[in-house]
Structures are given as C-alpha cells and as structure tokens.
Predict the 3D structure of the following.
Amino acid sequence: MKTVDAHLAEILAAVRPLDPVELDLDAALGATLAEDVTSPVALPPFDNSAMDGYAVRAADVAAAADDAPVVLPVTVDVAAGDTAPRRVEPGLVTRIMTGAPLPDGADAVVPVEWTDGGTVKVAIRRAAPLGNAIRRSGEDVLAGGLVLTAGAVLGPAQLGILAGVGRRTVLAHPRPRVVVLSTGAELVEPGTPLGHGQIWESNSFTMVAAVRQAGGEAYRRRAVGDDPAEFLATLNGLLGEADAVITTGGISMGAYEPVKEALSPLGPIRFEKIAMQPGMPQGFGLLGERGVPIFTLPGNPVSSYVSFVLYVKPALARMRGLPATPPATVTATTMAPLRSPAGRRSFLRGVLGVADGGAATVVPVHGQGSHQLAALAGANALIVVPEDVTGLPEGATVEVIPL
Ligand SMILES: Nc1nc2c(c(=O)[nH]1)N[C@H]1C(S)=C(S)[C@@H](COP(=O)(O)OP(=O)(O)OC[C@H]3O[C@@H](n4cnc5c(N)ncnc54)[C@H](O)[C@@H]3O)O[C@H]1N2
Ligand code: MOO
C-alpha cells in the first residue's frame, strides 16, 4: 500500500499556487500577498496631537504647578482634519484635538485633564515636557518604508495597513474556490424527513467548514445520487468556476461507486489504497484543461475529515501561495492504551489536554469507528500511531495533530 507521506508528496507535487490577481481590499481577506508593499508617505504623515488638550511651547508652562497654575490666552481651536496653517506664538496656546496637526512653534501638548479646560484663557496646573503627547511624522512608517512582504496572509490588521498606506487594491493569491460534492443515494438533506435506509447528509457541511477554516471559499453543491452520468454532468458544469473539487463517498469497492465509475475514463485520476486508518481509499487527480485538483475522499464521515486534514489542507496552503507542510504535531502522553492495525498509520480521535505539571496529555475518545461522527465531534486532536506499531500502553509518548 502507498504510504501517507508518498500520497501527500504526490498531491503537493501536482498542485500549484493560484495566479496572483489584483484584489479590491474589500475582497482580500484571507488572500496571500504577492507583492512587497511600501508606503508612499510617512505615517503619520504630519506631527499631530496624541491627546485632546492644548498645544503649547513647553518653556511657557515649565513653572506650572497645582498651587501655581500658569494662565495663558487661547487663540484658536485646532481640530482633526484642520487644514489651515497654524502657529503658536510665545505666551499663547491653541486648543488641540487628538489627531489634529501640531501648530508650528508648539513643542508639547498639555492634556485637558491638567487644566481648567478654558476656551478663552486656560489655567495649566502641570508642566509638560518637551514633545509631550506629540505623535511625530514617520514614527510608524518612514516614507518608502516596507509595511508588508509578499507571502503575508491578509487579516484585519494587514488590510488596515494596506488602506493606511493608501492602497485600494493589492496583488494577491486569491482564496481557492472549492466545490464540495457528496454522493450517495442514501443521503437526504438535514432539515428534511428521514426515510428507512436514509441518513442525513453531513460530510458536505464538514468539508465546507474545513475549507473555510483553511482559507478557501467553499461552495456546497446538492448531493448527487449514485448515477455516474449525473455526477459527471454536475462535475463538468463546475470546472469553470472551481479551483479545486472535493467529493466524498462512492470510491470504495461497492457495486454503486459513481465517483470512481464516472471519473475513471477521464484519465489521470488515481484511486488507491493508502496505508492509513481511517481513510484508506483515496483518489486524487487533475481535471480538465485548467488541471483543477480533485480530491475524492472516502464517504465515512471521520475518514473524509481525517483525509481533509492530511491532504486537502496542505494542498490548499500551496494553492494560497503558502508553505505546504504535513500537519504540525505536538508530543503528548496517552492516558489510555492504544491499538492500531499493522502496516497502517492510525489517526485515533482524542482529547488533548494539559496535566497538572503542564505536560501535554491525550485521551482517546470512546468510539473509534470511521462512521462515529459524534465521537469525532467530541475530540480535538488526532493521535498518530505509526505503521509499525500495533499497540501502545498507557503512559506512552505519542505525536498528536491538534484539530
Ligand atoms: N469490501 C470493501 N468495502 C469497503 C472497503 C474495502 O476496502 N472493501 N473500505 C471501507 C472503507 S475503509 C471506507 S472508508 C468506505 C469508503 O467508501 P466510499 O468512499 O465508497 O463511501 P460510501 O460507500 O459512499 O459511504 C461510506 C459510508 O459513509 C456514509 N456517507 C457517505 N457520504 C456521506 C455523507 N455525505 N454524509 C454522511 N455520511 C455519508 C455512507 O452512508 C456509508 O455509510 O468503504 C468501506 N467499505
Ligand atoms: O479507511 Mo475507512 O476510512 O476506515 O473507514
């Protein structure tokens, strides 16, 4: 059987970063920057006040004290957005608001709390050191300074600085658009009545959520039955709009395996058994002229989710222009014995926690069948048991993939 590592390596060798496109900032959340971004101006662009108060010459208020306030005339108000040239002459002050440009001649701001708040003349009770409450031009970014480098994932703060340096659009790898298709004649939509032999369709909800968490845009398409022609038609219709396709179900050894049947003639899609548990049956290939990656994952709900974590998530990272690596693991102590089939790498569902002394522990959940979705929902980690290990005692050290 093919190993987990070989399967991932094959997928990552086939998948390419999506071409960068110019994205409006409103549409760029989660995209990966494909250019270095510099600021055309210094930030802040001008010296300005950090507080509401009075712009002064520090020397004029040097003697101010609670028992000996300095009283000075107020010439004018300077608000944020004020574009008029302003100047503070010796012995005078202006009122100033947070974010307003510092008038020429002023070299300190006295917060309103240190004064009587006067508007015609003001009594100042405390000396302000030179430069007090002044935000200097360029103290965040120098003109021409680099603010983000290619490869940065655009989150709220990154979008903020892009706007902050005046950018409206940005060159970035977009989030991959991933279509999720489930197959199986037994599947009915949640929210509708269940007949005998039917189950509520759940995989597409898991997959869509997992894609979104992994930085993709996910589209759930109606679950299709067990008809290969219908499946192929649905798939063909999607290829123009998808950067990747995930299917679940229909790939094992059964008599009604529409995915396998429909896709087999299309060429370079390989259906294989991977030495893992759960998730043994896997398929991967590139579809159509654009070479759209398709992941045909096993139908069992735990199997498809584990497959997503191991294969689809790293592939999506590569498509996003990010480093693609196997899932990160942490080392933990198992609090119960573990069992695993010989020759297959197991991904047991567990609860990762912290012992009293601070060491990581993991407890396997009850219900390790690949159909046991409730047990998966109660887990927060996958316990990795290597291919050559069939059993581990309580207290053994294991690698764990946090979910
Ligand atoms: N003779 C053999 N039978 C099976 C083998 C095998 O090697 N030889 N492998 C087993 C393993 S392991 C797995 S995993 C499954 C994979 O089968 P398929 O990918 O073809 O999936 P289905 O048969 O369509 O479904 C399996 C199971 O999962 C349920 N399912 C499917 N889709 C959904 C969905 N969208 N939401 C909720 N549940 C879903 C489905 O009802 C089945 O119970 O094959 C084993 N058999
Ligand atoms: O390999 Mo299957 O995924 O065990 O249920």
The first strand starts at residue 21 and ends at 24. Helices lie at 4-14, 156-164, 203-213, 228-238, 258-263, 301-319, 373-377.
